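Contributing new records

If you add data, match the layout below exactly. Sequence lines come first and carry their own label; structure lines follow with theirs. Keep one chain per record. Anything else will be rejected by the validation script.
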Amino acid sequence: MSLRGTGQGGPVARILEVIEVLGGAGILRPGYLVGLAKAAGRYGSTPAAGFFASAARRPDDVGLIDEVGPPLTFGEVERRTNALARGLAAAGVKAGDGVGLFARNHRGFVEPMIALNKLGANALLLNTGFAAPQLSEVLTREECRVVLYDEEFAPIVEAGAADRTRILTLSSRAGGPTSVEDLIGSHDGTALDAPPRHGRITILTSGTTGTPKGARREPKATGLDSLVGLLGRMPLRANEKTLIAAPAFHSWGGVHLLLASILSCTVVLRRRFDPEDTLAAIDEHRPDVLAVVPVMIQRIVALPPEVIARYRARSLRVVAASGSALPGELALRWMNTFGDNLYNFYGSTEIAQATIAMPDELRAVPGTAGRAPRGTTVRIFDDKGNDVAPGVTGRIFVGNDNQFDGYTGGGGKEILHGLMSSGDVGHFDENGLLFVDGRDDDMIISGGENVFPREVEDLLAKHPDVHEAAVIGVPDTEFGQRLKAFVVLDKEGGTDEENLKQYVKGHLARYKVPREVVFMRELPRNPTGKVLKRLLREQA
């Protein structure tokens, strides 16, 4: 079975859909798309293009809010990034050079990225969870001779990038290493010439199985079908506010930085995620959109009821979640607390968008990944490359015009029938909704039966005493593999191993019951919230 986004009808129907969606988003206005197209021609599909177009259209409106300093208008961001680009050029950065950006969510991330876009340099977005050996390995592999970094990462950078040009994104003291503010303050902020080439943005994969790979993405223009498809299922609008809680170095946070710039939205950033601080920021700044990873939702709804009651969070129209699996029970808990504003985006750094679940779909069928937006095709194949029937699990393949251009170290994802492998397995239900059952390589074969951990994990998460759970397969001399569950309880002593085994046995087939249950204080995760099952396997 295949799932194809809308927009495949006749030309008149397609034109009407474009008008309806872009009009609803507020960008079908005289000069808006023309100005954006000119900016994209200058800088490619990058945040620099969006901020450049916004500065021309709304120079005095606030474009960026963070905790570092006073809000910045679009005009100020334009002038500051022009000056920063000149400063980086004076430091030796030129078109085609690789530059690492090792920063949290604040202006010291956004402005350097824009400045690098303006120079035509290649920006490498570094994971803030890196240790010095990982940093050194990735900078060497990606041929970065310059690194911009937050002051808190100085020991890591000094150990892992001692032989590279180092520039602080933010500095708390005068007279230290050169900082972004030093470069801005000492260079001219007038308009720049267009770069000789479009810069590339390299996002690192999540690295749940080892050292992250560099996912190369050339700054080609985004197809209209993809933009219309996304806005058709996730109703983002121009001139609003977007609070990006997800890490901006990750593809999901980066996508919302790009989308906010395209839509001339004010970007609101917090350096670190804290559940109560996020609610406070929502009440203070009243964003329309909140971009999160599912573990952030989990931490917010886990706050004591009396804490949640202190905040209204009424401004949110769209809570956009992606980056890891969104359990159905968690989706319902969020919507029961904060309203039906949750959108579940399924995709990855490599395949870009695949499907989006809207609030009504999450209400009706919790746990669904939704439907493909316009411009995207999703098919599920068996081991022989044939489409599977509804209800049958197979490998998920995706096609759209936003997919990555290959790994920087060489190679890419498997292509079948013109579609790219997601690396996941899943199934469609009878109504065409997608369900992601797990990673292709996570499948557990126990006694000849195939088990996908996601089903068991979701069931355990529904237990009233369980906060979250992860399931892996471990070697077994009799069955080949057996299931082992790692469980975090809501409160210590709420339940025991035997109770949880009986609970699973009462809902699933016997071979899906974990043979072992290990209780933990928390599951190991990477900075984007994905559970690091390789670390669990090392403990098994």
